[in-house]
Design brief:
This protein is mostly helical and 161 residues long. The protein has a domain of 101 residues. The chain is rod-shaped.
Length: 161
């Protein structure tokens, strides 16, 4: 038999392996990477908020120390008002907290807490006392109310309503 007469076909190579659809191992890897990214973002968000709260506590301790030295309740109210504004602005920068006053500032103070209610002593002192010199303020009650407000600060993001 002559080899030229044998009906053989030329070598046929398989199609190249395509990248899509992905093999199951790649799907598992993509899922693991996404999970790690989400966990990392959550950890970063919570640690950022914890840093804000700890910085607020440090500043509050300094304000409290200055109050025990000078005893001026109006100066205490001014300093705590600035601190509360800075803390809520750091917690919710996208909400424009820096510009709100009056009832909207009351609502922002409430929204910043887990209970949804900042104390009335705190609200009155932070909104009215810094600007009304003749108003009587109990500095110790204000310190206690602010300490409670810091303890109730949210550590998770607030959703827009």
């Amino acid at each position: 038999m002559d080899p030229a007469d044998i009906p053989l076909r030329d070598i046929h190579l398989p199609d190249p392996v395509s990248w899509w659809p992905l093999a199951p191992g790649w799907w598992v890897l993509v899922g693991c990477v996404l999970t790690c990214v989400l966990i990392g973002l959550g950890w970063w968000w919570r640690s950022r908020r914890r840093r804000i709260i700890s910085a607020t506590l440090r500043e509050f301790a300094a304000i409290e120390q200055r109050y025990t030295e000078h005893g001026d309740a109006h100066e205490l109210a001014r300093e705590l008002s600035r601190l509360a504004r800075r803390a809520t602005l750091a917690m919710e920068p996208e909400r424009g907290i820096a510009a709100v006053t009056g009832d909207r500032w009351h609502a922002a103070l409430d929204r910043a807490t887990t209970t949804g209610e900042a104390g009335e002593v705190l609200k009155r002192a932070l909104i009215e006392a810094p600007y009304r010199r003749n108003m009587t303020i109990d500095g110790n009650a204000l310190i206690a109310a602010f300490k409670q407000w810091i303890g109730e600060l949210r550590t998770v993001p607030v959703r827009a309503r």
